[in-house]
Amino acid sequence: MAEDLELALELADVADSLTVARFRAGDLVVETKPDLTPVSEADRDAERLMRERLGQARPADAVLGEEYGAAEAASRRRWILDPIDGTKNYVRGVPVWATLIALEDGGEVTVGVVSAPALGRRWWASRGAGAFLREANGDGVRRLRVSGVRELGDAQLSFAGLEDWIAIERLEAVLELIGRCWRTRSFGDFWAYMLVAEGAMEIALDPEVSLWDLAAPQLIVEEAGGLFTDLAGVRDADRGDAVATNGLLHDAALALIGR
Questions:
Q1: How far apart are CA 155 and CA 108, in angstroms?
Q2: Beta-bridge mates of residue 113
Q3: pLDDT tens digits along 72-119
Q4: Which of 10, 128, 146, 151 gives 225 a disulfide partner, CB atoms 3.0 to 4.6 angstroms apart?
Q5: What confidence score (pLDDT) does residue 72 get?
Q6: Residue 37: pLDDT above 90?
Q7: What is the DSSP letter of 151?
Q8: Bridge partner residues of 116 (DSSP)
Q9: CA-to-CA distance for 255 and 13, rounded, in angstroms?
Q10: How deeply is 210 buried, as exposed, middle or buried, from its count of CB atoms within 10 A (0-12, 13-18, 19+)?
Q11: How far is residue 177's CA from residue 207's CA, in Å, rounded to a whole number?
């Protein structure tokens, strides 16, 4: 597993070098995908470079990426790539975006990396070995641990955009949960989950997400001591929505927001 984590960190370096160079570039090419979400040349080029490196280092492994879909293989191992999580932020010049990399082995994610170079932060985990954070201007690497907050009234919550909750007809439920918590902010995307893993927040919710959005964050949250399920309480990153908590508040959050 150590070699797989090393490779995942290398893939993040490859993606970061490209995405940082094209961030806020005046000639960045942005298109609209069939689902009406934006995609930039940086999304596609970063995924292509990571796939090329995986083809060299792990030619027998399968790959699933947001931009280029699935490259099937007989292997039980599959790399899951999101070249830029937070593309809408990226194309508008907002520095909250990241490359997400996960390795799934036999249906279980064993390695996860989230790299946010514009924020100067990188998080990673491997199954059974803990979760870690490196800050560009910090004091080296530190191990992550979720908070010990036990009451919703003391909790910080990130809930994604309200329009997304309207779309799935869960606005009243999320507003009730918001009203029960001490403080709410909508950090969105990968960052909310990483703040849960760091112990800075207690609950992160997302009503519309894909496997590549969640595979790496789920492992990092779990290795930091938290819980990560869908809105029905199922521990599966491929069911379209997510709740991540410090574990102590998971049941309370699902009682209000769960399906």
A1: 30
A2: 101, 124
A3: 777 899 999 999 999 999 999 999 999 999 999 999 999 999 999 999
A4: 146
A5: 77
A6: no
A7: -
A8: 121
A9: 40
A10: middle
A11: 14
Query: How far is 233 from 252, CA to CA, in rounded Å?
Result: 11
SS3 of 119-148: HCEEEEEECCCCEEEEECCCCCEEECCCCC
Half-sphere exposure at residue 167, Cβ-oriented, CA atoms within 13 angstroms: 10
Q: Is 60 exposed, middle or buried (0-12, 13-18, 19+ CB in 10 A)?
A: exposed
Structural domains of the chain in order of their starting residue, each with its CATH number: 2-143 (3.30.540.10), 152-257 (3.40.190.80)
Query: At a CB cut-off of 8 Å and minimum separation 6, what does 156 contact?
Result: 181, 182, 183, 184, 185, 200, 201, 202, 203
Retrieve residue 249's tokens: 């508040």
**In contact, 37 and 87? CB cutoff 8 Å:** yes
Choose among 134, 155, 28: nearest CA to 87: 28
Indicate the pairing of strand 77-85 with strand 69-71: unpaired
Six-digit token pair at 229?
A: 């399920």
